[in-house]
Design brief:
The complex is a heterodimer of chains A (462) and B (341). Chain A is an alpha/beta fold. Chain A folds into 2 domains: 11-68 and 402-459, Urease, subunit C, domain 1, CATH 2.30.40.10; 71-395, Alpha-Beta Barrel (TIM Barrel), CATH 3.20.20.140. Chain A has helices at residues 90-100, 118-131, 154-160, 175-184, 199-202, 211-216, 223-240, 254-263, 274-278, 311-322, 358-367, 373-380, 382-388, 454-459, and strands spanning 17-26, 31-40, 43-48, 59-62, 67-70, 72-77, 102-107, 135-138, 165-166, 192-194, 207-208, 220-221, 244-249, 268-272, 328-329, 406-416, 435-445, 448-452. In chain A, the strands form 4 sheets. In chain A, strands 1, 2, 3, 4, 5, 16, 17 and 18 form an 8-stranded mixed sheet that branches. In chain A, helix 1 crosses helix 2 (118-131), helix 2 (118-131) runs parallel beside helix 3 (154-160) and helix 7 (223-240) runs parallel beside helix 8. Chain A starts with 16 loop residues before the first strand and ends with a helix. Helices cover 38% and strands 13% of the residues of chain B. Chain B has helices at 3-10, 31-48, 73-84, 105-114, 129-136, 153-167, 190-201, 242-246, 260-263, 270-277, 281-284, 307-310, 317-336, and strands at residues 62-67, 88-93, 119-124, 141-147, 179-183, 205-209, 236-238, 251-254, 292-294. A 5-stranded parallel sheet of chain B has the order 7-6-5-8-9. A 4-stranded parallel sheet of chain B has the order 2-1-3-4, with helices on both faces. Chain B is globular, with a radius of gyration of 20 Å. Chain B starts with a helix and ends in a 5-residue tail after the last helix. The chains are: A alpha/beta (462), B alpha/beta (341). Chains A and B meet through helix 6 and helix 10 of A and helix 5 of B.
């Protein structure tokens, strides 16, 4: 298991946990039944209809009505460390992850310095060990310094612990360099993830091209900026046999391109973000999708890359997620400090703080009858695990002997998003004050209880 | 007649209209409020026609014009409007101010609010900058004097006023049922956007004409994300053929063509633009007799509009400028005449 995580034996209290009468969803094995789950010593010890006997010192949780499943895996989070610790640190990001039900996070390399060398990978892993048991898996740069000119030392990065390569935040604009990255990495067992956006087409754009951008007088980003580069990258994956992972899809046009690539048997996978599945560009008008006063327009918390798009795009992405064309949900958690967002829309930084709202947002699809609960859990667990590779499959299972990464969530509990209570330093979300249905109540990472909601803690007090 | 009576007769201060604190765009103006504002501006024009152009309506009020972009007519026009109403008007340019030292727009706004400024007249290159200030300043009225590509509401009001004065008559506001053709770079024009709201709401037929590359993509029939609360496209028609578009027009409004549009790849050449989209005598012959020619200024004579036409009898361009002061007086009066008065 060493390559899956960064956990060092640093002597935390690690009591066994038994959750009784939960709905157990094991996406890897395709199981879905009501039963008990027992974890201890960093492993799942049992997951069955009834677990007899309670080990000494065990924390027992009455989980009736709750779902127990493998901890969620996020392929795409910006933890800002090193370099932007005023926006987020690995520790605050890990805490936010735990609140949201995530026990594994892949952190993007657009830090300062960027994660383009062994030493920065090691720094990130050291900070991750200090932060606790949430698994932080660094993503290395595709190009040196994220400059888009020459390949980073990809094998060095992989050997140090980088699980994928990406210049996220910036696309690999040079088609030949992208080709080289895909070809060179074929024997490294790691995907190359691209932020698909033709910068000549996106230009100075700050939101989706369309009626809302026209009304607000904001430069638009056409869907073609994304579709054109996805088509290019799929052609390059076909030419090289490389492993391509498409980051944060936002357009309806991406779906048929991805579907065709999969039909051809290419090694292509894709992710989609909760916000692109649930909210649209008209949120920039203020009023969170409803009628807004003019003063509320230009809500900079809606500014994100790729941009929020139309209802047509949202519907196509939801359908593709449900039918499995899109492999997984990733957050693109992009925390920012206040000053980066308390400016004009054009000056504002791109990004949304997503980790703590991802589950509640994604469950809207289940409540709306658009995807089944087990399928959604799969897109948060086994989907991303498969993108990382066969060595990570055990993270998506509740089978005895697999790592004790478990989330207990209540799919029905209603709550109001309050950025003042975020564990993330990033309070930048358009969902502040919005009612969501469904949230994590207890999260176990590597056998350790990293989050226990007050109510569940109180209900099960000894 | 005293100013108070003039304004009372305009219904601007009456209970039938909502109390307005900010003027950000015309998109939240009803037809009634537009009409009342034009009526109030008519009263203000009477004040401007007096020997002594001064009335104490806003004595004791402080107005700051905060301009992050160069401007002559809009700024002077606001300044004159405020001074005729006896407000204290302070002009502030971004260059040479604390903005040059990196002070944020928010902090500049908070600083001015702390000094007791009543009204902030803002011009900014970024769309939505006035909305941003309005959202964050609790004790200041914000007037949009032009923001990015978004809106220039007092320009649209003065255009409406000018048309009403020239084409209106007894029981006819001069706008309803008329055909307005806006020609040129609509994509980058805040004047066009505000005029679409204003003229469409007053019942005019709005036709846009210009290069397809300078039309908003959702107007031109491309794959537009059109399910949001956008709404501008449904208020206009687009015709790229100027000869055809001008047919039967009552008002032809030429927009300024920035020379950088050619360098930006939007146009093959200025020469070809002139050939296809210049508003000139030959083209105006297809419009209704007595049709008006307008331009928000500053003009590139010989490019988007011919010199002869710009200074000819059909041109309302100077009247637009004159109307600007009266309209801005009406706006400043309305925003300051609320419960704080």
């Amino acid at each position: 298991m060493s390559r899956m995580g960064n956990r060092a034996a640093i002597g935390r209290e690690n009591r066994p946990v038994l959750a009784r009468r939960a709905r157990l969803i094991d996406p890897l094995r395709g199981l879905d039944f009501v039963g008990d789950i027992l974890a201890g010593d960093g492993e799942i010890l049992a997951a069955q209809t009834v677990v007899e006997g309670v080990p000494d010192g065990c924390v027992v949780i009455d989980a009736a009505g709750l779902v127990a499943c493998p901890g969620f895996i996020d392929l795409h989070a910006h933890l800002r460390e090193p370099g932007y610790e005023y926006k987020e640190t690995i520790a605050s990001g890990a805490a936010a992850a735990a609140r949201g039900g995530f026990t594994t996070l892949c952190c993007m390399p657009n830090t300062d310095p960027p994660i383009d060398s062994e030493s920065v990978v090691e720094f990130v892993l050291k900070r991750a060990r200090e932060a606790g048991p949430v698994r932080i898996l660094p993503v290395g740069c595709v190009t040196r310094g994220r400059m888009g000119r020459e390949l980073a030392d990809l094998e060095e990065l992989a050997a140090a612990g980088a699980v994928a390569f990406s210049d996220d935040g910036d696309p690999v604009q040079d088609a030949n360099l992208m080709r080289m990255a895909l070809a060179y990495s074929t024997d490294l067992g790691r995907p190359v993830s691209n932020h698909c956006q033709d910068v000549h087409l996106s230009g100075e754009g700050v939101m989706a091209e369309g009626a809302v951008a026209t009304r607000l007088g904001l430069p638009g980003i056409p869907t073609a900026a994304e579709d054109a580069m996805i088509a290019r990258d799929i052609a390059l994956a076909e030419a090289t046999g490389g492993r391509l992972h498409l980051a944060h899809l936002s357009t309806s046009g991406s779906v048929p391109l991805l579907r065709r690539a999969k039909e051809l048997g290419l090694n292509v996978s894709a992710e989609v973000c909760p916000h692109h599945l649930t909210i649209t560009d008209d949120w920039a008008l203020g009023g969170q999708g409803g009628e807004g006063r003019s003063e509320l327009a230009y809500d900079t918390s809606t500014k994100v890359y790729p941009p929020l798009r139309s209802r047509v795009d949202v519907e196509a992405l939801v359908e593709a997620l449900a039918d499995g064309t899109i492999d997984c949900i990733a957050t693109d958690h992009a925390p920012h400090d206040r000053a980066s967002k308390e400016v004009t829309y054009q000056d504002a930084a791109f990004g949304i703080s997503v980790l703590e709202t991802a589950l509640g947002s994604a469950l809207q699809l289940v409540h709306g009858g658009l995807i089944s609960l087990p399928a959604l859990v799969g897109r948060l667990t086994v989907g991303p695990a498969r993108v990382l590779g066969p060595g990570y499959a055990a993270l998506a299972s509740l089978a005895p002997g697999t790592p004790a990464d478990i989330v207990l969530f209540d799919p029905e509990r209603e709550w109001t998003v309050d950025v003042g209570r975020f564990a993330s330093k990033g309070r930048n979300t358009p969902l502040d004050g919005v009612r969501l249905r469904g949230c994590a109540l207890a999260v176990i990472a590597d056998g350790e209880m990293v989050y226990l909601s007050e109510e569940l803690g109180a209900a099960n007090a000894e | 007649m005293a100013l108070r009576e003039i304004l009372d007769s305009s219904a601007l201060g009456s209970d039938s209209l909502p109390l307005r604190r900010h003027l950000l765009d015309l998109d939240d103006y009803s037809r009634e409020e537009l009409g009342a504002t034009l009526e109030a501006a008519h009263g203000m024009a009477e004040v401007l026609g007096r020997d002594i152009k001064k009335t104490p309506a806003l004595r004791g009020r402080v107005i700051v014009t905060l301009f992050y972009e160069a401007s002559t007519r809009t700024r002077i026009s606001f300044e004159e409007a405020g001074k005729v109403l006896s407000a204290d008007v302070i002009n502030m340019s971004a260059s040479g101010s604390s903005a040059d030292k990196g002070e944020s727009l928010l902090n500049t706004g908070l600083t001015l609010q702390a000094m007791g400024v009543d009204t902030l007249v803002v011009r900014h290159p970024h769309s939505g900058a006035p909305n941003f200030l309005a959202r964050n300043l609790e004790r200041v009225s914000v007037v949009n004097a032009g923001d990015g590509l978004h809106a220039h509401p007092t320009q649209a009001l003065l255009d409406l006023y000018t048309v009403r004065a020239r084409l209106g008559g007894q029981g006819d506001n001069g706008i309803e049922g008329r055909k307005l053709v806006i020609v040129g770079d609509v994509l980058h024009s805040r004047v066009a956007r505000s005029n679409i709201w204003g003229f469409a709401r007053m019942g005019a037929r709005v036709v846009l004409c210009g290069p397809p590359t300078l039309m908003p993509p959702d107007f031109a029939g491309g794959k537009a994300a059109g399910d949001g609360r956008g709404g501008l496209a449904s208020m206009v028609e687009v015709d790229t053929d100027l000869d055809r578009a001008v047919e039967g027009a009552d008002i032809v409004m030429a927009l300024r063509l920035q020379s950088e549009r050619q360098r930006g790849g939007f146009l093959p050449s200025i020469r070809e633009y002139i050939r296809r989209w210049q508003v000139n005598d030959a083209r105006l012959a297809r419009a209704r007799p007595g049709a008006l020619v307008m331009h928000p200024g500053p003009m590139n004579e010989g490019v988007e509009i011919s010199t002869d036409l710009a200074h000819g009898s059909r041109s309302a361009i100077e009247e637009q400028v004159t109307a600007g002061v009266a309209v801005r007086m009406a706006v400043l009066y309305q925003l300051n005449a609320g419960e704080r008065a």
